[in-house]
Every structure is written in C-alpha cells, then in structure tokens.
Design goal:
EC number: 2.7.13.3
Order of helices and strands: HHHHHHHHHEHEEHEEE
CATH superfamily of the largest domain: Histidine kinase-like ATPase, C-terminal domain
Protein name: histidine kinase
CATH architecture of the largest domain: 2-Layer Sandwich
Number of strands: 6
Domain Signal transduction histidine kinase subgroup 3 dimerisation and phosphoacceptor: 180-237
Strand order of the largest sheet: 4-5-3-2-1-6
Catalytic activity: ATP + protein L-histidine = ADP + protein N-phospho-L-histidine
Radius of gyration: 38 Å
CATH class of the largest domain: Alpha Beta
Strand content: 5-15%
Oligomer: single chain
Structural class: alpha+beta
Distance between the termini: 65 Å
Number of helices: 11
Transmembrane segments: 15-33, 45-71, 77-98, 129-151
Number of domains: 2
CATH topology of the largest domain: Heat Shock Protein 90
Amino acid sequence: MMSKPRGTKRIRHPYRAFFIIIFSLLYELNVWVYAMPKPSPGTLVWLMAAQAIVVCCYWFPVWASVAVLLLNGVGEYAIPGYGQFTAYFMFLAVVLISYRTSARIAAALWFVMAAYTCIETSVRPDAFSLYGCTAFCMVYLVMVVVGRFLVWNDQRNEQLRRTVELEAKVRQLESNQYLAAYLHDALSQELALIAMEVQLRNADPSRSDDERWEHVGEYAGNALDDLREIIMNLRDESMSLRLSENQDKDIATVLEHQGREGDELLHRHGFTGDTEVDVIRDADVHDGDVSGLVTLICHEVYVNILKHGDAAGRYRVRMEETAARVRIDYENDIAEADETKTHGGNGIRALRSLITSMGGTLSHDRADGVWKGHVELPIGADARARTAPAVNAPSAAA
C-alpha cells in the first residue's frame, strides 16, 4: 500500500484569501477597537452577519460579494449605526467581482458604485463632502483595476505554466533524439564491421576463419561495452545525452580526432583516401551541442562510406571550422552492389532533425557513381571574432 505524501496543504485561491483576511482584519478592528460610539447589540448581529457572508466569498466570490453590497447598501439606511462600517467590505466586494468576472462587468460595477456614491452625497450632504465623494469613486476605481490586474496575472501564470510544460516536452523530445542518435553511433560502427567480415568471408574464403571470428568477437565485445556504458549512464540522473565525453573538448580537437579515427578505420579495411581538417588554431571554441553532434555526424559519414563505398575507389572528407560555422563535405565512390541504393538510412534521418533543429543544413547527392554530401552547422551567434589564421591540418592517418 502506498502512503500519501505528507506536506503542507496549499491554499487553492490565495488572492481571495489574502483580500478577505486583510479587509476582515481592518473591519474587525474598526468594529471592536476604533468605533466611537460602540455599536448596539442589534447592530453587532448584522455586522457579524456581514462578516460571515464575507467569509463565504472565498467559495462564492461573486454572489457572496453581491450579497455584501446589497446588505451594506440597505443596512446603511435601515440599521442604526451600521453605515460607519460599510466601506471596507464594499471595497472588498468590488475587488472580488472585478477579479472573477469580465472587464465589462467590472467597468459597469464601477459606474454603479460611483453613481451610488454621488447619489448618497446628494441625499446626505452631511455624510459625504465633494472631496469624500471623489475619493471614494477613485478608491472604487483602484479596486476595479486591482481585480483586473489579478485576472491578467492569473492568465500570465497560466501561459507561463503551459510554456514550461511545452519546454519540458521539447527537451524530452530532444533528449530522445540524442539518445536515438547516441545508440546508433555506439552500435552502427561495430555492426557494420561485423557485416563486412561476413561479406569478406563470402568473397574471399581463403582467409582463415579463426582470424575472422576473432575480429567478429572483438567487434561484438565493443558493441556490448558500448551498450553497458549507455545503460550505466542512463541510470545516472546527471547524464547528458549530448555526448558528454566530447562536450568539454573544443571543436577543432573533436574534428581532428574524428578525422584520424575515420581514416584509420577506412584504411584498415582497404579504402584509399584521406580527411582534410581546416581549423582555427588556438581558438578554443567550445560548444557542447555542436561538438556532440559533430561526433555523431562524423561517425555516420565514415560508417556509410565503410558500408556502401567501393574499397577499390577513393574517398575524400573535408572538415572546416570558422568562427561562425562548422562545415563537413564528403564524397566517395559507390560500390557496384550499392549503385541502385540510396545512401543515408536511419542514421542520416535521425541526424537530419538534430541538424535542422540547431539551424544547420544537410544535403547529399549521387552522380556518376560518386556519393557526395554536405553538412553545415552554426557555432553560435555569441561566438567571439577570431583573427587567428586557419591552417591546413591533414589527419595523421592520411
């Protein structure tokens, strides 16, 4: 059995409670402390009845407020000594009705209260001076404005609440996208290598199966290690799905590292070509989102070349970093078996949404047996102007 969480109960209508308590306190002080002369017992009964109705304003703000206005309007003339205590609750009623109804009703209420005050001044000139009449009309206007301000504040809070909910949903969707890309990134390379070993086994049976199985076991072990790491990170509430291992690295370091690893992978499987990295030296540009996404893009580029490219042909990858953007261009010869296929499977589709969500672009095309692709990502509008010269830094494995 699950126990109910303990905690302080929240007031459902804090604005109503606040105004009821404040005006009731002023009213009670006026009745029991400041009143001169003291009201008679019969008048006190009606005064306490008004107080009870005001308490009901918490649950029935409009109708109870109307009852207060009627009681005070009639009681001021019908009950001896009642009139000197009516002001506070009339102010309260105007605030609550303006708060819980529309702007038109609030404006009409102000005209009614102002007309009532002016008529009372004409009928009882000893009770109100012209200054007092003007002051009461202005106080009623202030109460109407306060009530409408509370309405506006409630609407703004509701919009903020909805905005926070939408932002949470967007963050969750973004997190899911990164998780999908992260899973693809962690497993696609090893699975592609395993598939290639099987293809090479069918194409070249002369090679020792023991050596192939050794490679397959190594790739499968790497995939399992990646899965374990992902599972452990998912259990950690502080995990950032945006490739935390690369968030602290500057973009130039990430590009050079990915270029070296990509060349090593492809050269190890007989591909010819190189990766050219053109970066800003000593710029130390950090952008965690871009760094993580660049890692995913590079892995997808090299894995697709490995899976669909022609090992007898050539490939070429160029990575460029400027003060405002990161650009990756790649091309490779397509294997004859893949001539009728289109590059870019689930990995590219998953990355496309991430790239466009960050303001970048992704395009690819196939012509004359060559696959070409282009990716461009903005680094950030607040990046500092860089004046350091860009140098040509081919990867070490090229």
